[in-house]
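yo, 2-oxoglutarate-dependent dioxygenase 19 isoform X1 is done. seq:
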Amino acid sequence: MEVPTVSLVIPPSNSIPAEPPKIISAKMLAESASLTSAIPSAYYFSEDSYELADPNDPEFQLPTIDFSLLTSDSPDQRSKMLHELANICRDWGCFLVTNHGVTESLKQAMIEAADRFFNLTEEEKHNIAKKYEADPTQIRYGTSYNARSEKVRLWRDFIKLRLHPDFPTLNENDGYSEVAMKYSKKTREIATELVEAISESLGLDPNYIYKALDLDSGVQFLLANYYPPCPQPELAMGLSHHTDQCLITILTDNDVSGLQVLHNHKWVTVTSTPKTFLVILADQMQIVTNGKYKSAMHRGRVNKEAKRISLASLHGPSFETLVTPSPVLVEREGKAPLYRSIKYREYVELQHRSRMDLKCALDQILI
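structure:
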């Protein structure tokens, strides 16, 4: 998979030196008295391979799927939407979803719960994650992606919870766990319907992908990202370019735009719209479809004026599931498998190592 070229910007001579040791989160840095008009040089980051798409160019208008028509009882409506879905998954790997059934009040409650979490003290946030340090896949709180090994810091903080098949408790008093449970249940229902529709759009049984990846016991994560306002957004990056390691991601935010997806060698800015989810196909989808449907490259930018909170509901196989290109698709299309079979756990570890070098994990398993 072609990925953007990354160049580290050489900071001007009058820039702030590397991040002061007392700053341990992007939020703390953004709110600190030491931050005036220039960010620390440790946050300088530039991706200059591709230019921004013209938002008025029809070629770069992000496609939309009406979820109510996709799940319609009308065979004609559903057939039409499945045809559109197939083209979108092949050409874009991502799309907006309307009429999905998740209320704005539930979305807002989840955004507010995440905001409350990020407003806790650093000690409180780290203590919550520390309760599950024996299994870091259960809960993880941090800043950047891996501050010890990244070549440059990212302008974001995050909390990541594994919500399925088991569910952790953050803090009984703040309501985060309760609303996260409700939110995750609704997004899981949407993900299940979408996976069935995607399977059917490939000419497969609706339950083919679901069963092949054993999604009954699959893992679901809720990743909340906090991007504080940045005085030099043109120099910083909220989240560097990547594809998701899972099967499918359902994304929303606090109606502050910042996500960009790569399409036809240009970055397309996703305009945040109320009552709409962004669906992103991920690496396991590209593997199981033998490259027919693409995993969408995307990144998160920051701005000067407003904090951005995004919620990514990530759905994937169980860690022990062996993911392989569909033998049915391989035989039907007469193409050799593009990717070697790999356990999901091993792929997650591979992707983590690859991201540290700003590489694509899918390229590492090409046959």
